[in-house]
Specification:
It contains twelve helices and 14 strands. It is an alpha/beta fold. A hairpin with a 2-residue loop joins strand 12 (324-331) and strand 13 (334-347).
């Protein structure tokens, strides 16, 4: 079937949907426009999926190796698979079906997008993170879908995959058992969440773990764990619930260890205050290409929640709250630990960092 015939069937089907159910309208148009098609059942399934589902990216969402799906136009779909980004040999039939796809996404993530709200974030049922940008901030709709592996990696699995050495594996396991407070840093897509999830899996099952996130990315399968998620205010109907709110409440839920998926704002102060006053063995992640940069960013985030504090007080809190900083990077398509430092002391100029041999 040509793309022109496919587009015509979809267009005529949509025009007739007001008076007939989708499947009946579609069958009628297939028989009318392409009666000679040998596999009507397969064609019917494909067109139903494009009109009322995920369309051409359905197969990508089923592929566990796919971590990013980027849609820049109906005919430009890029996919990151096993660390490599390339253009996929897939496309929407036209802008009409792409717009229906966007409406389906918005319905699933329970969000509204229009000229007043052209930028939207949300989470699909499978945990994939969705970002939609619409005109006027873009010339064409742009959809980004970020997916986290559902494979329950252990630290040993990551070591065998080459993320770090066997000797480093043993040292990390030892630090987790010693209840060190650990901060993971790196850029977007470098493997921070994967490493964080695998480190949580090393925590004894007898210990109660509470995770606090904006979206459900850690997706823990271990017992004795509770996941708390923020909520965005929906048109003023419900109040928003941020990471700081969840952290304060998590402290009343008898946690043995706290895990904040990623620190981005004033919740850094609440987290550090909690871990420096008894909740040891806790973990989080932060953006930063190095340990030094991550600690500098952490200082900035804490200062936003403690405007009257001196830098000396902020650094003292960070030093008392963080024991280990792990730097992760993506190099040549591979994710790896490139730096591990311990906070060994506090000097007038800043932190005394003790780097590990990688």
């Amino acid at each position: 079937m040509t793309s022109e015939m496919r587009a015509l069937i979809i267009q005529k089907t949509l025009e007739n949907m007001s008076s007939e159910p989708l499947e009946i309208a579609l069958d009628a148009q297939i028989k009318l426009i392409d009666p000679q098609n040998a596999d009507l059942a397969e064609l019917h399934r494909n067109l139903i999926e494009e009109i009322d589902g995920y369309g051409p990216i359905t197969s990508l969402l089923k592929n566990q190796n796919v971590t990013e799906i980027l849609i820049d136009s109906p005919s430009e779909i890029y996919v990151e698979e096993s660390g490599n980004l390339q253009k996929a040999n897939l496309s929407f039939t036209n802008s009409q079906t792409l717009n229906r796809f966007i409406k389906n996404l918005l319905r699933e993530i329970d969000r509204t997008a229009d000229q007043r709200h052209p930028l939207v974030d949300g989470t699909l049922a499978d945990g994939s993170r969705v970002h939609i940008a619409l005109p006027p901030v873009t010339s064409l709709p742009v959809i980004s879908i970020r997916r986290h592996s559902k494979l329950d990696w252990s630290l040993k699995d990551l070591s065998l995959k080459g993320m770090f050495s066997e000797s480093l594996l043993q040292k990390l396991q030892s630090k987790i058992n010693q209840r060190a407070n650990i901060l993971i840093c790196g850029a977007t897509g470098c493997g921070k969440t994967t490493l964080l999830r695998s480190m949580i899996n090393e925590i004894p099952k007898s210990e109660r773990v509470l995770t606090i996130e904006d979206t459900s990315e850690l997706s823990l399968t271990r017992p004795n764990s509770v996941s708390l998620l923020t909520r965005i205010s929906l048109e003023g109907l419900f109040p928003s619930i941020n990471l700081s709110d969840l952290l304060k409440n998590a402290l009343r839920m008898r946690p043995d260890r706290l895990v904040v998926g990623e620190m981005r704002s004033e919740e850094a102060l609440v987290f550090l205050d909690a871990v420096s006053t008894g909740h040891t063995g806790s973990m989080s992640s932060i953006h930063g290409s190095s340990a030094t940069q991550a600690l500098s960013r952490l200082e900035h985030l804490v200062s936003r929640g403690a405007l009257q504090w001196s830098m000396e007080s902020i650094r003292k809190l960070i030093y008392e709250g963080i024991d280990l900083v792990i730097g992760v990077e993506r190099k040549n398509g591979n994710r790896q630990i490139h730096e591990v430092v311990e906070l060994a002391g506090l000097e007038p100029f800043g932190y005394l960092l003790e780097p590990w041999v990688i």
